[in-house]
Amino acid sequence: LKDDLDNPQSFYDWIKRKISAEPFVNHAIWVAKIVSRVTQDKKTILWALMHDVIEDVKIGEEKLYNKYDLELIELVKSVSEEDKSLSWHERKEAYINHLSEVGTKSLIISLSDRIYNLRDMILSLKENGLSVFEKFSVWFEDQERFLLNYTSKISEVIENIDNTDIKWKIQKLNDELIVLTWYFSLIWNWE
Predict the structure, then answer these.
(1) Taking Cα atoms as reference points, which of 84, 78, 89, 104 lies closest to residue 162?
(2) Distances (CA, A) of 168 to 65, 79, 159
(3) Burial of 55 by CB count in 10 Å (0-12 exposed, 13-18 middle, 19+ buried)?
(4) How far apart are CA 1 and CA 84, in angstroms?
């Protein structure tokens, strides 16, 4: 684990982000940093660094099975979209429905990922205007609808968490995402 925490770039092989064209590893590091605000568990932080290695980097599950335990692989899979052949709308709906089946570590990583993605999109929208949506297969309204449905589902899932401390931390992340979604809507309407 220590080697992987020291060199997260090894997961992402200099891949660039769609929105900002920054190295993908920056996204992973920031997601891990957001996760570290709510937990100091080193495994969870490492998992946050690796959250996109199956879905976006396509490192391959077999490579992960050779190096990591099943718990890590299952967590990475739990925050990944299962079937990229589906339309954007179908993938997002399936992802939202899947949230009630995942554990609290997955919820923390998923929320942290959404928070970072939305911050990145807001910055790009402020810098580039509406042209930022040309990089996506859907327009603003679809992104906004997904975020509203996502945060609503998280609110439902939170109700079933028994651990008060974890429940509060996940609620805090969800509240942050709700505020960012509101701000995103405000910027969009301003444009």
Answers:
(1) 104
(2) 33, 20, 10
(3) middle
(4) 29
Measured in degrees and rounded to the nearest 5, phi and psi for residue 23 equal: -55, 135
Cα–Cα distance for residue pair 25/34, rounded to 1 Å:
14
Residues in the chain: 191
Do 39 and 169 touch, CB atoms closer than 8 A? yes
Packing angle of the helix pair 70-78, 104-128 (nearest 10 deg): 40
15-53: string of b/e by CB count within 10 Å (b at 16+)? eebebbeebbbbbbbbbbebbeebbeeeebbbbbbbbbb
Q: Kindly report, residue by residue over 147-162, the tens digit of the pLDDT.
A: 999 999 999 999 999 9
23 - beta bridge partners?
16
Residue 13 zone, left/alpha/beta (φ > 0; ψ -120 to 50; rest): left
- pLDDT by residue (tens digit) across 70-84? 787 788 888 888 788
Contact 80, 47 (CB under 8 A): no
Scan for tokens 């949506």, then name that residue.
Answer: 133
